[in-house]
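Researcher: We're teaching a course module on how sequence relates to structure. For the next exercise, students receive a sequence and then see the predicted structure as tokens, so they can try to spot secondary structure elements on their own. Here is the exercise chain.
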Amino acid sequence: MATWFITGCSTGIGRATAEAAAAAGHTVVATARRTETLDELVARFPDLVHVEPLDVTDDASIAAAVDAAVHRVGEIDVLVNNAGIGYFAAIEESDPAEAQRVMDVNFWGSAKVTTALLPHLRAQRNGHIFTISSIAGVRGSAGLGYYCASKFAVSGFMEALAAEVAHLDITVTLVEPGPVRSE
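Model: And here is the predicted structure for the students to work with:
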């Protein structure tokens, strides 16, 4: 069985991924800004799910979560970069602070969590990095300019990373779904 480190497990794809991995018998380090949202998940899988607080926009939080996870469970086999936010506004009408926030969460969050875990994966010479991007990272859509930009950026970053780490038996997979109903 593998050990999974999953960001953004409060709801949606992250929560569903954590549930599926634990149900299959894998160890899961489930992360969220609000860890109380994971109480029910831990109650269902008390021996398999471990919770770490994580704000992907905070460098200290990333370092603490990765260090705590590695200390608690040892090797991390699978990273799922899922934490993300939507932002719906025409480019011309976008709030600069909100545009920055969507880049900080969707792009920089995935990039920084990945680079924090890369030394561990490199030392193991094995691992799998899944990153939840979006169809918006493949084609732009009106009213989603900054969201699309964040997803294009993370997709390009992960495509480059895949080429850089393939020789280490580290696989990088982009998941680019269409709309997903989530809280």
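Model: If you want an answer key for the exercise: The beta strands are 3-6, 27-32, 49-53, 78-81, 127-132, 170-175. The mean pLDDT is 95.
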